[in-house]
Fold:
Amino acid sequence: AARKRALLAANEEEDREIRKLERRLGLSKRKRKGGGSSVPLSFARDGLDYLLGALEPGHRGGWGEGGRAGDDEEGEEDGQTLPDSDGGTDSGTDGEGQHEAEEEEGRPGAEAGAETEDADVDDDGRPAPQGRAACGRRVRFADGGTEPAPEDPGAADQSLCENEGKYIPPHVRQAEETASGQRKEGLQRLQKHVKGLINRLSEPSVASISGQLEELYRAHSRKDVNSTLTGVLLSACAPAAAVPSRLVMEPVLVLSILHHTVGVEVGAHFLEAVVKRFDAAYKNGGEGKECENLLTVVAHLYNFHVVHACLVFDILKKLIGTFTEKDIELTLLMLKTVGFSLRKDDALSLKELIVEAQAKASAASGKFRDQNRVRFMLETMLALKNNDVRKIPGYDPEPVEKLRKLQRALVRSAGSGAETQLRISWDSILNAEQTGRWWIVGSVWTGAPMIDNGQQKIAEKPPSGTVSGKILELARKQRMNTDVRRNIFCTIMTSEDFLDAFEKLLKLRLKDQQEREIVHVLVDCCLQEKTYNPFYAFLAGKFCEYQRRFQMTFQFSIWDKFRDLENLPATNFSNLVHLVAHLLKTKSLPLSILKVVEFGELDKPRVHFLRKVLYIVLMETEAEDLGSIFARVSDSPKLGLLREGLKLFIGHFLLRGAPASTSREAAQRLRARADLSTKALQGKASLMM
Structure:
């Protein structure tokens, strides 16, 4: 009797301790259905119900510490079962005390709770201490109770799903962990592969490496390849130390090829990372050479037609707006790299930038101790404005041009560069999270209505198709009888300057036959002016520089006018002379356009026309340019008659038939220029002599 009372007291004490620990850990208990066992049926069926206690990770007892075997033997010796913690008895043969449990609603298969064991008893019959009591395994399931589970990282069990209390089976959890590990290993292999390709990059291997990177885009997720390629390129091109420009050009060239062949999202992802990193480095003070390296990357992205000039101008305006010593260095670096390309693409914006820089420099004259860098920056801008390459030290466009040719050869089948250029502003990239990435096709974005200053400015402008009635009436008088001609005429008449007219005419997106109307309308407008207007000559020269097909169209148009010289009024005749002379002086058209002239059958109007054209070309052109103009027709055997005819015409009609009012100095200069042109027609060897 005394032994029974001691065992019962030990059991009750142990049950109280277990219930207290369960409440602290948030473990629920399981009710027995119909008085059945509290252990899983699968364990009881196999006779393994007692293993739950041994498999518990926090199990402090062991089989050698007075486990269940000793209890069973003692129960069999007494020939009776021990009551549970509530004082009741159990008819089971295993002789173990059982906990009171609750059945979870809505989860018939969920089990929560634990099995309790008889108190350990020493060999001499005394109850064992509570610390030696074997704790049964407690499996955590979804808790349907009202008591929330406290956060206890030390006691957290991996078998419980922490995602909204749902239980995840071990095999599913293991599969997720395996998939996560495999993805991590795959990204590491991808990064290693991309880094190896970039490290082996050189000019001869650009084609093969860009092809291998395209294969990676086909074999992997574009997001993964974009992130990996961006990280590898930034680590290679934009470290804290200075990087030579040539080492930046080739990785950016590979990126531009992928931008054209794979998709614009490749360049967009890289550009956004570069701009945000530059903005962060610039705000932190720009220590080291990271800002210079990132700015060089942006410059070469523009060189290889990934971004439009608007982004470069935004950066330059931002730098000139603050105008510190660091800004001056960065501005000089950008102008040295892409200055002449900016002048070619948007001379008007470059002119405005130069005016703003000059105003800032004059306002901050006493701000800097050393004014040499400011003076050098202004001289560089002036050289860009005057198209004087010689005044920019260290300027060498040959490496960029060589890589551009390689790029054109590799992306020829992927479309033109103008269609894939990213026309993104600086603010649009920095505010991409708020306004959306509208420059990526298919980019999903939901949020507040997009607000962009650039769009507001465009909305303030009048519609491009609306012109005044006065211009339309003028177009009717000039016999612009088709819609295409009328649009071209109105565009030319309403433009601010020849660059504005050039951009607007390109935006009309005319097709082959319609595009030729630009030349016909331009020549007709030039001839109809009362006095010669050089606006049309500069616009014609811009189109000749843009595409060779415009040169051919101008050539045929001038030949048509040349056949009808005797019927042209005096004003039209004079304007045509100045137009042809300007195109020859600026090398927009070659001297071979005169090959249709029959020098043996010249009549008075044609002699007058050629004399005026050649006189302007000889007298208003620099000596170096004059030699190159005439030397362009010196090597072709098909132009032999033209060379002989020009030499005869210059010697007979131009020198002997010079006006009597010509001064002596002008006559001497004309003769010297005539001798120079004659030598140039004979070939480059005569020029060397």
In short: The chain is about 60% helix and 0% strand. The two ends are 136 Å apart (CA to CA).
